[in-house]
Design goal:
The protein is of the alpha/beta class. Helices cover about 35% and strands about 15% of the residues. The two termini are about 30 Å apart. The relative contact order is 0.16.
């Protein structure tokens, strides 16, 4: 079955459309933290459709909300008043921490980041953007232009001038051997120096934890320290929360809150988990920034009634069941378990992350060089053991990405860690 479907896929889909595994997997249905393939085999899902199935597969509260809304009306566009969209915008604005916030809904994180770039460059009258090395912000023309990860940036052409800043990766690069405080100081000095050689940028866009980059992050407080420099130049701070938002990190509801001592970002982008699989993205910004556009705009599919109903139900479930707290508790157990089972593996460079956003970086034993071949082998071995995980990384793809739904149980965390342990052992 998979072979026949794979042949059809290759005949009509682009060659650059990535698939996991030499024998690609067709997922037919899911429930809770599990999914099933076309052959009826069950897997523990530790990747959630790239951190998108945030609460659980087939969550009854979400499927009920979608079904009921679809029975009334699915779509009308933003040209008409939309009660579910307004209700979700009110909740997101309140949760964002941004004063006098306005919310614009899109269909994806890529489109959300496009909108943030449009707002920032228009507000600041500048097409220069600061971005982080090892970053990823989407696959559109403008988002690719600010992506600091060669593996996901197919062109150097861009409407933007992008300047890349140090600091997104704590354990690699020229400042890796410094203490956290000295690391932050060195990155701030690098930023100051960079700003002395360029026209005033519109904004700095940064993921609090880099997703595609392999779940890397700076020490807490780096972006707060950057903020002092940015504010002195009038430069906006855009926090890309597409993967870190909604409590996934456990310690905070938003990833930027680990860097929030100098206040919230000027703009926050979000997507993925809020819809629990439905296509929702969005931008939150101060009113003066959101309202800076001097031409009409709409969104045909952003904010559709059926996706907003899903988002409202999913957010309510997340908050009522304290899934942020569960991510902190179960994620803490999972990361310690993974550190224990990898302690004697010479090819595991680091287990990092927080909450249910965990990276396991693989390198060739005795070196600091990435090991993408083993990463692919571990991915396949984990699948064979009944576990689905992801992968990512900067210079090369050799970080395993572990990001289960936030309702993960302790027993499931232990089961997943044991399967991953077996996969690592089998590929040494």
């Amino acid at each position: 079955m998979n072979g026949e479907l794979y042949d059809r896929h290759r005949r009509v889909m682009p060659d650059w459309l990535a698939l996991y595994y030499d024998d690609p997997l067709e997922i037919t249905h899911g429930e809770g933290r599990h999914v099933w393939d076309a052959d009826g085999r069950r897997y523990l899902d530790f990747f959630g459709g790239i951190l998108t199935t945030m609460t659980a597969h087939a969550l009854p509260e979400v499927t009920k909300a979608v079904s009921e809304q679809a029975g009334r009306i699915i779509h009308s566009s933003t040209l008409y008043l939309n009660r579910p969209m307004i209700e979700l915008a009110e909740r997101v604005a309140q949760l964002s921490g941004i004063p006098d916030a306005r919310v614009f809904f899109t269909t994806s994180g890529t489109e959300a980041n496009d909108t943030a770039l449009l707002l920032a460059t228009t507000y600041r009258r500048s097409n220069t953007v600061l971005a982080m090395r090892n970053s990823y912000h989407g696959r559109s023309f403008s988002a690719v232009g600010i992506t600091g990860n060669r593996g996901w940036s197919p062109t150097s052409l861009s409407p933007l001038q992008t300047l890349y800043v140090h600091g997104g990766v704590r354990t690699r690069g020229p400042y890796a051997d410094l203490s956290d405080a000295d690391f932050i100081a060195a990155c701030v000095e690098d930023l100051r120096d960079l700003l002395g050689h360029t026209r005033a940028p519109a904004a700095l866009i940064a993921e609090p934890i880099q997703g595609v980059g392999g779940f890397t992050s700076p020490p807490d407080g780096l972006y707060a320290a950057f903020r002092e420099v940015l504010d002195a130049h009038g430069i906006l701070w855009i926090a890309d929360e597409v993967q870190t938002g909604w409590g996934r990190t456990g310690e905070h509801f938003w990833g930027w809150q680990a860097h929030g001592s100098n206040g919230p970002p000027d703009i926050v982008t979000f997507a993925k988990g809020i819809g629990n699989g439905m296509s929702i993205g969005g931008v939150v910004a101060r009113a003066e920034i959101m309202n800076c556009l001097d031409a009409n705009s709409i969104s045909t599919f952003g904010g559709t009634q059926v996706t907003m109903a899903a988002g409202l139900a999913n957010l309510a479930y997340l908050l009522e069941h304290d899934l942020q707290g569960n991510a902190r508790r179960v994620g803490g157990l999972l990361v310690e378990r993974l550190r224990a089972v990898t302690a004697q593996d010479p090819g595991v460079r680091e287990v990092r992350g927080r909450g249910l956003m965990i990276g396991v970086e693989l390198t060739r034993p005795g070196t600091d060089r990435a090991d993408p071949d083993r990463a692919a082998a571990v991915l396949a071995a984990a699948r064979a053991g009944g576990l689905l995980i992801g992968k990512g990384g900067g210079h090369d793809t050799s970080a395993l990405r572990v990001a289960p739904p936030l309702s993960l149980t302790v027993a499931e965390a232990e089961e997943g860690a044991a399967i991953l342990d077996g996969a690592l052992r089998s590929t040494r």
